[in-house]
Amino acid sequence: MTEPIYSLDGRYYTDPNIFAIEKQHLLASTWQFAGHASQLANPGDYFTFSVAGENLFCIRDKGGELRAFYNVCQHRAHELVQDSGNARLLVCPYHAWTYELSGQLRMGPNVQSTPGFDREKICLTGVRLENLHGFLFVNLDDAAQPMDQWFPGVREQLLNYVPHIDALVPTEFVEIKEQTNWKISVENYSECYHCARNHPTFATGVIKPETYDIQPQGYCLRHTTECQDDLSDMTYPIDLSANDTAGKYSSWFLWPMFSFQVYPGNVLNTYHWRVGRAVDQVVLYRGWYAFDETSEAIARQLARQDRDTTVAEDIRLVESMQRGMYSRGYKPGPLVLDPNGGVNSEHSIRALHQWTREAVDGYL
Prior knowledge:
4-stranded antiparallel sheet; 2 domains; Rieske Iron-sulfur Protein; alpha+beta; globular; Naphthalene 1,2-dioxygenase Alpha Subunit, Chain A, domain 1; single chain
């Protein structure tokens, strides 16, 4: 008789030591979302962000190349830039050491008086950066495989589902603070077993649940479904004649903390997660993108709808789960693994748990 596969033990969601291992090893060696290329339209444009506790920034140099660096001066470790802006040169606020936009040291007060000082040997520490249709990702591990190997097929599939993807710009961002472990939030996103009961607007006005399926694709979870048969049931207008994918929904969750989501009508939105200071804190960002006035109006409508329904509904679910993980009464139950897949199967959770164990267990 085949034994069932059980959920992860509660300690994976509550143990500060496991959380520290994840930050040091998992988050620092995987592809993490930084921002959108449209934020760096001109030479000198920059924005800051954080990954695995590291303060970083992206910038467009004078030659138009996009770069990412650790946000730390090579002199005495002061932060170079704050928030976002534009700079002709990168000047440290502490001692005015000055760097080119390429990261190379240009000058510093009185450095020429120092015997043996070699300006050519001093440069900001770079970070690997990849551009996926305008979405910028970084990886702190210089030896990590490229994104196309981690997430095979995603680049081509995204272009098929969003033919205008390279013209998109950010339209709306919603920041959601959840009192839960980041993996609980990710797992909740990565299954629709709970959708019919908990997300009536999404389940009846955006997707057709009986066609919903999720399959692993490298370190990606690919969600697919269709829109409602009766378009009058949709909560927003779509034109099925626009292209071959206009009536379809798809999502590409990129392990461990980012997802592209395409609503019927080729509406692109994103999720990305940032861990908080504690094991039971996470911040979730919902991004919505558009390329003209019509798509912007739809994106803003859906952002409001999503915030008031699915987002609000999920906060209650994930925070309740976190409280349950602390309970001495919780004993991990078996996952529901339907061999035929479908909306009521948790094979996506099985994959997430496997990836978590791969990332964590060797360090316990």
